[in-house]
Write a structure and sequence with these properties.
The protein has one domain: MFS general substrate transporter like domains (Growth Hormone, Chain: A), CATH 1.20.1250. The protein is about 75% helix and about 0% strand. The chain contains 20 helices and 2 strands. It has a two-stranded antiparallel sheet. Helix 12 packs antiparallel against helix 20.
């Protein structure tokens, strides 16, 4: 696109407006992921489950996320980014209601998997949509808002869980209408889910999807509205030229290079980014935050408060990235975050390693070890949300060429959520088996691996138009 003209203020404001609407999906992604942290005890009592059963109840949503991300990426190439986000909003509503009314583990898992489909779809479609409507000069910043929305959703769920538990006395106590408090924790999500559904009705479809689908007049109209007449028409030509020479619709097989007889390297890089983001263990902190801190000797109320603190610190970290990602680039933020996470996770493992275990199997942290663990976890959460949290989604939303963006996101999203499931499911088992210190040592190891992965395989995308991406 020509640099001689720029979109009017009105067009820029409209881009920001529709991008913020898309990030409500990120808010629900975070809320739906984080709300489970305050309900673990309630689920154990209501469904009489042991460690492995609780781990599956908590992580069952993640199986839905994996399939939601994969099929959303594929279906979005056929039906559009906006259409998939609308379907996701409906699933959020049904899942929030159903998770609260569930009367058995099987019923609960069904609704959580349904919510997982919504989270998975939103996780890949929101950054893809934002990347496809924003200009390169501030695309990273707008896509980073997605991670802020995710953390805001997580923090909102922590705050909601805390106040509901404080008001009722405990997450397992009977509350309004004779129903347990943990059920109301799920129902609180109905408000933002309903807002998301209504807001999606007023945003346009992604212009790059419209061009790929042969809806040229609609695409041109959206591009002109976003960028102005001159730049909009120029961008229409650039998008058309970036697609396959035979103009076939994007498909999963495009990820395979028939000339070289191999999967395109960019697909492997996407998978690596997606998997390593989870193998550093971030969702253990969020999903099992209260359980972790109670195991370390804190009360349920104190544990929920520390989750709120972690969420607030994470938002501050994302705000820093918001202003840095388009200035210093994606790659420096990633490797800096990797190095810092490896160190901070090692500190946490060290703090837990020196703590004795009582007859009930609970850690008895000294004041010094408790503070060291608390500071280490919060430094880790800060560094993650200043680097891999937002930047991984920025990269996935923009690193793939137009022809394979939907398929690339589908594949990376599938692996990202499968890795998330593996880490989340195994944590209660690791906690009961090898303990907190060894578990955190494993996550520290993968943080160290991610340093070398970024330095060797990741290419900078700062300032490049999507039509310049190579794969």
């Amino acid at each position: 696109m020509s640099n001689s003209s720029s979109p009017s203020q009105g067009s820029t404001g409209f881009i920001i407006f529709i991008s913020v609407i898309a990030t409500i999906g990120g808010f629900l992604f975070g809320y739906d992921s984080g709300v489970i942290s305050g309900t673990v005890k309630g689920l154990q009592l209501a469904f009489d489950s042991e460690a492995a059963g609780t781990g599956f109840s908590v992580s069952s949503m993640l199986l839905g996320c994996a399939f939601g991300a994969f099929f959303a990426g594929r279906l979005a190439d056929r039906y559009g980014r906006k259409s998939l986000l609308i379907v996701a909003s409906i699933f959020f509503i049904v899942s929030a209601w159903g998770s609260g009314i569930a009367g058995s583990t099987l019923e609960f898992v069904f609704y959580r998997v349904l919510g997982g489909l919504a989270v998975g779809a939103a996780s890949v479609m929101a950054p893809a949509y934002i990347s496809e409507v924003a200009l390169a000069k501030y695309r990273g910043m707008l896509t980073s808002v997605q991670q802020i929305a995710i953390i805001c959703g997580l923090t909102a769920s922590f705050i909601s869980n805390y106040f509901l538990a404080e008001t009722a006395g405990d997450s397992t106590t009977t509350f309004w209408w004779g129903l347990e408090t943990w059920r109301w924790m799920f129902w609180a999500e109905l408000i933002p889910a309903g807002i998301f559904f209504l807001a999606l009705l007023i945003i346009p479809e992604s212009p790059r999807f419209l061009v790929a689908s042969g809806k040229e007049e609609k695409a041109r109209a959206v591009l002109v509205k976003l960028y102005g007449d001159v730049d909009g028409n120029a961008k229409f030509s650039e998008i058309s030229e970036s697609l396959a020479s035979d103009h076939h619709r994007p498909r999963l097989s495009d990820l395979y290079d028939r000339v070289k007889g191999r999967v395109r390297p960019i697909a492997w890089v996407g998978i690596g980014l997606a998997v390593l983001q989870q193998f550093v263990g971030i969702n253990v902190v969020f999903y099992y935050g209260p359980v972790l801190w109670e195991a370390a000797g804190f009360t349920e109320s104190q544990a929920l408060q520390r989750n709120v603190l972690s969420g607030s610190i994470s938002i501050a970290a994302c705000l820093i990235t918001l202003f840095l990602v388009d200035k210093i680039g994606r790659k420096p933020l990633l490797w800096f975050g990797s190095a810092g996470m490896a160190i901070s996770l090692g500190v946490v493992a060290y703090a837990f390693a020196g703590a004795p275990v009582d007859a009930a199997g609970d850690l008895n942290l000294s004041d010094e070890s408790g503070l060291l663990a608390l500071y280490g976890v919060n430094v880790y959460a800060f560094l993650f949300n200043m680097s891999w949290g937002p930047v991984m989604w920025v990269m996935l939303g923009e690193m793939f060429p137009n022809q394979i963006r939907g398929s690339g996101l589908a594949l990376a999203g599938l692996f990202q959520w499968l890795a998330n499931f593996l880490v989340t499911y195994t944590f209660p088992i690791l906690l009961a088996g090898i303990g907190l210190s060894a578990a955190y040592s494993i996550y520290a190891f993968f943080a160290l691996v991610s340093v070398f992965f970024v330095l060797i395989f990741v290419r900078e995308t700062k300032g490049k138009e999507l039509e310049q991406m190579e794969g």
